[in-house]
Amino acid sequence: MKMNKFVVVALAVSTFVNPAKSQDPVVMTINDKAIKRSEFEAVYRKNNGKEVNNTSKSVKEYVDLFSLFKSKVLEAESLGLDTLATFKSELAGYRRQLAAPYLTDKNTNENLLTEAYDRMKYEVRASHILVKVDETALPKDTLEAFTRIQLIRSAVMGKLPSTAEIAHYDKLLKNTTEVSKQLKSKDSTLYKLKLNSVKNLADYGKNAEDKFPAIAQKTSDDPSVTDNKGDLNYFSTLDMVYPFESAAYNTKVGELSTVVRTRFGYHVLKVYDKRQNRGEITVSHIMAKFPKDATDLDRTNAKTKIDEIYSKLKAGQSFEDLARQFSDDKQTNDKGGQLQPFKGARFPKAFEDAAFAIKNNGEYSEPVQTPFGWHIIKRNELKGVLAFNDIKIELKNRVSRDSRSQMGRTALITRVKKDNGFKENLKNRDEFSKILDSTYLRATWKAESADKLGNKEIFNLGAKSYTQKEFAKFLETQMSFRSATDLTELLKSIYKTWVDECVVAYEDSQLENKYTDFANLYREYRDGILLFDLTDQKVWSKAVKDTAGLRVFYEANKTKYLWDERAEVTMYKCIDEKVAKELRKMLKAKKTEKEMTDALNKSSQLNLAFENITYLKGENKNIDANWKVGVAEKDIKDEKNVAVIVVNNILPKSPKTIGECRGNVTADYQNYLDSEWLTYLKNKYKVDVKEDVISTIK
Predict the structure, then answer these.
(1) How many domains does the chain divide into?
(2) 152 and 267 share a domain?
(3) What Cα–Cα distance (Å) separates residue 623 from each residue in 567, 571, 612, 636, 640?
């Protein structure tokens, strides 16, 4: 039977492990291939557990198994299976999976995981002001945005911008890409909007105890500020981008954060509260809704309605029944009022506070008012923050998808550079500014343009030189149509990406030398894939595809594939005993099946049905009880109908056709091919066991 490739590879990986040892004699040779003791010993111990029965018989068994495995790998190599593009591609895929844990800093990743869990225990309520700026913005645009957010932050803290500071900002603003372009076309809208947001800071919330909401509403580029005045309500870890999250958790309640850069731009946060994470709750609710533009009478009627429903609940009526009958929430009333599970900041504060205040599952709140109406809330389930070990895998997956996961890669790059003497000559990099022109922005630039620079070294890592020609080729791969931009800054950005990728690739190339576990595991995957492909070629697929060989094998062994004694039966199913009695009369009169069905189904097509079936002896107890040609003496009755059995013929034991037993023949043919192939391998690959080394394995 053909095995799944993953199973074969997994078996190879779990079995053949080769820990490095300083004194490692040869335990056997297979033709000219030397096998070290450590490799064989690891197999022997792994398959027997820590306590092994050190007998000559058990060692001999493992010698045979191990040498056979190695012989198969050598045979695959001799046939060139390790040179095939499909093999190389598949192995490369496995290698990427194996290498991934080694190409990040494990300590950083573990610290991030612990940090995320510790933060998960708490929720933060914060407001923010955003000044948008693109991640790839030019320095002049970034400087304008940074200056603006600094002035806004100072104003929130009570320090208004001076005339000189406003003038300086005005100069920066006019120089920005978008504003300067609009001013040239006589459009000053954007210029005035941004400048006034700074010039008028003194007017925003000047009499307010807390200036932040008023200043946020006038200066923040976050579109939601119109409604929330910058208030983001409560959130927890992994709800926000990592730099923003860190600023929120690291800022004390009542204080402002420093300026924070995210992919959206610059932020300043004010933290209003921190509390223990209340968990995730599932509730149902009954709602008496306020109409749009509700009058005082509307509100009074809603309160009267919810009080009446509450009285019915107190009197013992079902919450779900009342929700279905009276709740104004049309999206949930047919489900008994049940809402989707939620944490915080999804519903109005009054609703959430009331929901989380309910002590036990099944209990419900008193009527609660929100901007949308009155509610009675029933708690169905509350899940607190799980223990670290219970949530670790899920948390690890979430962290790996978050931007913070890049910190492990960044830490690895820093370490690899330090450990391998990273040195760079930025002068040779900057020579590219002579040859990088507008054709790069149109994606028509060619790497050959760098030939005139020579091929000087830009950086060196682990005694390996990385040159201008290599960087030129990388630059060409990074081309895309871009709007006008500063080519020098673009060059620096792409250079950093190139360096990072080269450093990671260098570390990847050293994994076999640095980590014995990785080298062994990689070799074992390689051997496992070769073993699968070779066995598939020689046994599994061959048995399926070699139809001529399969037929020859069948003819030589057809006496193994026999039908046991069989009965050819017609099973007549009658709607009742009356029809069965009429049927028996017709059978006795030798009527044909058509004559019988036409006559008996005249009044109803449901009266009689029949089917012809061949049964093996022992397959049907009713047939076994009437194992002779003719009409069975007794009817077979069940809840649905009455059956009359007619045994038409008893067939003796006879050979099956190849079509009738193809599955069994194919399996036996595979075993035959496997046996023949193993004999071939044992003849081709001579195993020389070093008995003196084998005897030392304890």
Answers:
(1) 4
(2) yes
(3) 8, 10, 13, 10, 19
Is residue 520 classed as helix, strand or coil in its secondary structure? helix
CA distance 483 to 248: 35
Question: Inter-axis angle of helices 106-120 and 406-419, to 10 degrees?
Answer: 150
For the segment 654-660, the average pLDDT, to the nearest whole number, is: 90
| Residue 484: per-residue pLDDT | 76
CATH number of the domain within which 623 lies: 3.10.50
Look up tokens 């930025």; give the residue. 426
Domain end position, chosen among 324, 356, 381? 381
Please report, for residues 208, 564, 633, the alpha-carbon distance to residue 618 in angstroms, rounded to integers and kept in the order given: 93, 10, 19
Specify the amino acid at residue 526: R
Per-residue confidence (pLDDT) for residue 464, from 0 to 100? 95
Q: Give CA angle at 464 (458, 466), nearest 5°.
A: 25
What the block records as the tokens of 622 is 């009713």
**Six token digits for residue 107:** 């300590």
Q: What is the largest CA-CA distance in the chain?
A: 121
Q: Which residues of 402-418 are buried (b: 16+ CB within 10 A; e: fewer)?
A: bebbebbbebbbeebbe
pTM value is 0.65
How far, in Å, CA of 546 to CA of 532, rounded? 19
pLDDT tens for 329-379 read: 999 989 999 999 998 778 888 999 999 999 999 999 999 999 999 999 999
How far apart (Å, rounded) are the C-alpha atoms in residues 363 and 291? 28
Distances in Å between the alpha carbon of 351 and those of 182, 344, 366, 476, 606? 48, 10, 11, 57, 62
Segment 558-575 shows an average pLDDT of 92
* Whether residues 215 and 347 fall in one domain: no
The tokens describing 263, both together, are 């992919």
User: How far is residue 178 from each of residues 92, 265, 690, measured CA to CA in Å?
Assistant: 46, 16, 79
Pairing mode, if any, of strands 122-132 and 33-36? unpaired
Q: Is 589 exposed, middle or buried (0-12, 13-18, 19+ CB in 10 A)?
A: exposed
Q: What is the dihedral of CA 296, 298, 303, 306, to 10 degrees?
A: -170
The residue type at 431: E
What sign does the dihedral 146-148-153-154 (CA atoms) show?
A: positive
For the segment 83-121, what is each residue's pLDDT rounded down to a tens digit?
999 999 999 999 999 998 899 998 998 999 999 999 999
**Which strand (E) or helix (H) includes residue 414?**
helix 406-419
Kindly state the helix (H) or strand (E) to which residue 130 belongs, with its residue range.
strand 122-132
The helix/strand/coil state of 226 is: helix
Radius of gyration of the chain (CA): 40
* Euclidean distance between CA atoms 68 and 689, whole angstroms: 13
Mean pLDDT calculated for residue range 240-264: 96
Coil, strand or helix at 371: coil
CATH no. for residue 296?
A: 3.10.50.40
Per-residue pLDDT at 2: 54
User: What's the distance, CA 55 to chain centroid?
Assistant: 47
On whether residue 592 sits in a domain, the answer given is: yes
Q: Read off the amino acid at residue 221.
A: D
Q: What is the pLDDT of residue 13?
A: 41
- The whole-number pLDDT of residue 528 equals 87
Residue 340 in domain: yes
Q: Is residue 665 part of a domain?
A: no
